[in-house]
């Protein structure tokens, strides 16, 4: 086959969403994530009858089979804005600060920052979001205060049609997070993530051509249908609600077995759960090395993370076979794989002459995560070749002019570790840039002294 169906998200992003949905389902019940999808019209029509927020809350509670008695609705002062507290607001985004209100679990209250009539879609979405927050909180769900996970619960329970029409994240903040899981707290779902959440909602209900998808905004409709086609064709999802199988408490042997599954998402999630009480057996070691060499970048990145995690607890896991494979990945075609493998090699003490040279070339890279990885690796060395220092100098001048203080501190640390007289070196380096010298010297004074006397390599 020449054209394989693909999801609209990367394997890292889709596996994170599927894992969160599995967490939600295991907490509030799989049956709630198989409920019918409620149309926008049904909710708008309900509100139009009496314009009573409590009526909407009662409707949502009945849909969820959740007791909403005791939930109170309050109106904030007209000038009040969403403070980002509770479960309705918050989240980091380049766009609106959140929904038009917030839910407080301590007294089960919903505070609306504007009247529903002033913006019915936003107001009704806020009420729905808050009731789902209440459901999650009452069931002691750990992520009940996290915008992304509440959004997933709203869509997953069939209540997302109004929320789908509201853009709360114009653009995700830029982080270097090679597995794309660990940015915290995560913002509300952006458009692409909403599209995938809706696709998995249709697929979970075995709805191959959902009528409700025609009400999706145009920017969600196409990627949603693309992902639905992918799911129907491949069934590549860790989250399988119709199976109603509890997966998050399974044994280590079951996680290791799942790491060989045909589903890329299941592999990623399983790899993130792998652990060992001691040295890996031959089969486990072979599996991890195989995952390091995967053609799927998400699997490779998470395998690197797994080795880092396990080796920090059991150093024998970071043996020569693992180190040799990680060294080969520092020249990988994907720059995040290069950077991540370099950082882990440095932590394991596995850098050799060739990888030190590779680390030096990373200092001239335009991608910040590559520069960071190269600097981090060099900072872990007792000595470096003479030709590394000019690369360090070029990097320092560049980041100082860009006012990139995170990297400035790291470079100053490297100078302290690798040079006998870093202050004199800086004075010479910035003799023609007097405006930069005070900043360089101040940074040098702030960074801690090296743990042991180090020398520059020959």
UniProtKB/TrEMBL annotation:
This is HEAT repeat domain-containing protein. The lineage of its organism: Bacteria, Pseudomonadati, Planctomycetota, Planctomycetia, Pirellulales.
């Amino acid at each position: 086959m020449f054209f394989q169906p693909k999801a609209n998200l990367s394997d890292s992003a889709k596996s994170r969403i599927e894992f969160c949905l599995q967490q939600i389902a295991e907490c509030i019940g799989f049956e709630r994530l198989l409920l019918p999808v409620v149309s926008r019209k049904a909710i708008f029509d309900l509100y139009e009858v009496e314009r009573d927020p409590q009526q909407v809350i009662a409707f949502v509670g009945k849909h969820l089979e959740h007791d909403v008695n005791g939930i109170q609705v309050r109106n904030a002062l007209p000038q009040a804005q969403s403070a980002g507290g509770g479960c309705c607001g918050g989240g980091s985004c380049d766009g609106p600060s959140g929904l038009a209100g917030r839910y407080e679990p301590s007294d089960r209250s919903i505070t609306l920052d504007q009247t529903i009539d002033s913006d019915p879609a936003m107001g009704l979405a806020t009420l729905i979001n808050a009731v789902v927050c209440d459901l999650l909180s009452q069931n002691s769900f750990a992520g009940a205060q996290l915008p992304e996970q509440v959004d997933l619960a709203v869509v997953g329970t069939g209540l997302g049609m109004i929320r789908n029409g509201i853009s709360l994240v114009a653009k995700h903040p830029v982080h270097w997070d090679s597995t794309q899981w660990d940015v915290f707290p995560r913002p509300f779902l952006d458009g692409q993530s909403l599209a995938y959440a809706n696709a998995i909602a249709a697929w979970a209900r075995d709805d191959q051509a959902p009528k409700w998808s025609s009400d999706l905004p145009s920017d969600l409709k196409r990627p949603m249908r693309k992902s639905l086609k992918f799911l129907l064709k491949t069934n590549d999802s860790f989250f399988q609600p119709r199976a109603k199988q509890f997966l998050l408490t399974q044994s280590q042997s079951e996680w290791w077995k799942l790491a060989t599954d045909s589903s890329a998402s299941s592999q990623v999630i399983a790899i993130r759960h792998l652990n060992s009480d001691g040295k890996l057996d031959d089969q486990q070691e072979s599996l991890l090395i195989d995952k390091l060499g995967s053609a799927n970048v998400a699997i490779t990145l998470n395998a690197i993370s797994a080795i880092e995690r396990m080796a920090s607890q059991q150093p024998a896991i970071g043996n020569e076979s693992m180190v040799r494979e990680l060294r080969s990945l520092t020249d990988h075609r994907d720059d995040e794989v290069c950077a991540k493998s370099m950082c882990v090699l440095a932590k394991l003490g596995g850098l050799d002459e060739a990888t030190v040279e590779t680390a030096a070339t990373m200092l001239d890279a335009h991608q910040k995560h590559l520069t960071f990885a190269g600097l981090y690796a060099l900072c872990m060395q007792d000595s470096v070749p003479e030709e590394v220092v000019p690369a360090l100098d070029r990097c320092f001048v560049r980041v100082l002019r860009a006012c990139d203080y995170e990297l400035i501190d790291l470079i100053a640390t490297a100078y302290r570790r690798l040079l006998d007289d870093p202050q004199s070196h800086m004075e010479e380096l910035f003799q023609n840039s007097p405006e930069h010298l005070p900043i360089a010297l101040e940074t040098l004074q702030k960074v801690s002294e090296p743990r042991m006397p180090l020398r520059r390599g020959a």
